[in-house]
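Technical note accompanying the year-one report. For the benefit of new consortium partners, we illustrate the data format agreed upon in the data management plan: each record pairs a sequence with a structure-token string. No post-processing was applied to the example shown here.
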Amino acid sequence: MSLVASVRNLSKIYRKPGTNVEVAALRHIDLDFALGEFTAIMGASGSGKSTLMNILGCLDQPTTGSYILGDQDVSAMPDDQLSEIRSRRIGFIFQNFNLIQQLTVLENLEVPMFYMGIPPQERRRRAKELAERVGLNERLDHRPMQLSGGQQQRVCIARAMVNEPLILLADEPTGALDSKTGQQILELFDELVKTGRTIMLVTHDPSVAHRCERIIQLHDGQVSSDERKARRIVHAQGAQLTGT
């Protein structure tokens, strides 16, 4: 089993502003995430799931413990290095889409590649390829307000893959969608996992979680349960675990 991410003895302590009161958002967590694994992270408000996702996404750092992403220990990296890791190795999918309303589908997909320094012709080629992969090849010149919620989420998924990320992190990715459209998005995730993508999503919805092959339950900053179904066969052509 190839691991893409691993946390050991991970804790996150916050101090309430203006006081000496400390709050433990995460407490001594050990987790491994395998290549091509589809994981749901669940828990009540305040259980630590958002904090865990922020650390996995290199948006925050642990107070103690280690986080290995691919072959790199990112636990104590400075902000500029974490920013580079985020842009190169992590894809984010948001509940509220966060698309640039003034830009077309094609342009929204090209924006992150611009900041990665990819030449214009290559940006355009890759953007078209990703749009086709998520079923939007006939919507390239549409702006977000001209798309349905499901189509906007497809743009988000395509945008999250522009850097060929090691992991995809999704925060309530079906929360703003009706049930039918939400199922279509989950089917798209299934297809991505079959090609070797590693997806971790936060959800409150048990029906969404049970579509995943693994469900991690958090309670008071600790893992209360970690259940896996039968492992999928992963076709991980071109999967990169080494640093860039």
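Partners are asked to follow this layout when depositing records. The beta strands are 3-15, 22-34, 38-42, 64-69, 72-73, 90-93, 167-171, 199-202, 214-219, 222-228.
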